[in-house]
Amino acid sequence: MQPLWRGSCFWTVAIAAVCTANLARGQLVITEIMHSPGGVDALWEWIEILNVTGAPVDLDGWVFDDDDESSASLANISSAGGMRATIVPAGGVAVLYAGDELEFMAERFNDAWGGGIALIGVDGFTALATSDAIGLWSSHASYLGDAIPGATSSPRRTFANAVAAIDYSNGFPASENGGSIAWNGNGSVTSGANWGASQDGALGAFTSVETTIEGAQINSTDDRGNPGVLPPSSAAAGLLITEIMFAPNSPLATVGFAENDFEWVEVLNNTGEPIDFADRPSVFDDDDGSQLTAANIHSGALAEGEIGILFNSARITIADMQAMWGEAHNYIPVSQWPSLNNTGGDTIAMWENFAAYNTEPAGGSGHDQAAAAVTYNTVASQGHWRRIVLLAIRPLER
Description:
This protein is mainly beta. It contains 5 helices and 25 strands. Strands 8-7-3-2-11-12 form a 6-stranded mixed sheet. Mean pLDDT is about 80; it is low at about 5-15 and about 380-398.
């Protein structure tokens, strides 16, 4: 019998297989455009793309351009000997930014917009107009194949061979005061009726943080957008792990506490029914500890569509969590907490009862009977107070 909460999916952030070329139109889509930032255009323009396939897509050797620039002489997205990121995660999003202008230092973009975003630098990011048409080609040859012979002004090319393209010159919302325009997650991504201008608190939008770059103008804190975050309607059915705080900086110097005491995991109930953990004690575990001898979630509940935060109740109380993270959240106690790996390669999972968990290999190393499971990866040198947000990643079919 299949677990009641389980969909037919398993989420993973680190996957071996990578799609590299020959993708059909629609398998990558453009979901957000920052064409009129408050800061210098050449530094702070960016676009967000969504990978709707079940495997990561490598953009190494691809071209990003609009319809009116002169032809690029080479592909402008490159891994440069493996030193630059070019991967769009499976079912997830990545942000294309002005790589050469920011010296391919992703931390400069992160200073303005925060971490946890898959960033891909473009060497010669095309200048975006208020109303423009833009596209992505999987090779320089396919890009050149769309050139309009003899054209010296707009349009200079079509998008017949483009893997992803969007024309936002007609019927799309206007951007005001440095806000991006973003797809709302419903209907066709190419219809302007399904896009909106980013406002604080709408569609997950937030304001960029003041950032100083040596030798370059500071960014504008009027910029608003939600780079790297999909609209909530993209969440798939099932019990979903949506955020992981795996390397908190707490405790700074708190005697008697350890870092893993302050770890937490966010889950979303998208099963179509409420979940009462008092009625159905459940299990949360990772893949590298000793086997539990009983369920470790005995209280708390998740209404349909509600988010809850699992935390280490052996060390931290609900009142502690409310003091640190706010009273409005739904905190769910976990009596035996698995210490999360700060350098990645960890798999965490939830089982709807102890019997399902107990059929797995010892130490939580299996997750076939799990209602939700995520393998997350990260960079060992990224420091503390690191979390990853997974709501933008759609589940993969088993």
